[in-house]
Predict the 3D structure of the following.
Amino acid sequence: MRLNVNPTRMELTKLKKRLVVAKRGHKLLKDKQDELMKKFIDLIKKNNELRIKVEEELTESLKEFMMAKAVMGSEMLEEAIIMPSETISLEISKKNIMSVNVPIMKFIREGSEGASIYPYGYALTSAELDGAINKLYNILPQLLELAEVEKACQLMADEIEKTRRRVNALEYVMIPQLQETIKYITMKLEENERGNLTRLMKVKSMMEQRG
């Protein structure tokens, strides 16, 4: 399907310039798409590795909590951990990967300097509770990294899809339209030139005959 334009030399020049720009844009977008896919695959691998590790650690921590609950009882367990020794907030910034702004997350821990991570005395608590809290404390940075990577994967996937649509629009719609229109105008101009040449030859022939 060609574009609806007048078959003139001026239009032909404009369309040829547009075709050059479209082909250049297509190449740049295709290169971007390929690079995004490479980074996306790397992130997916990292995401899977982190998820397996985090799930294993969380499972172990849950087992420790269940053991602590069995030894201490629910009420004593809740009383032991009801008052945390520190508060944690989240600081979020961004970094740019191939024009995609992915989040960078960082924990801000607030509490007494040198304070223990255990918000209780050891007299009435079990070693299993100590182990569970220690595991959770150590796994928090990995959980945060997993959240970062998963969000980055989602944003990269969205950008890949947008880029793919643009590449396809250029490759299967715009560039073929421009090529078809250029071909049509070129044929029309050549046809007009042949018609003009035929008329000139007829005029010349008539003038020679009269002469």
Summary: The chain has a mean pLDDT of 86. The beta strands are 86-97, 100-111. The two ends are 50 Å apart (CA to CA).
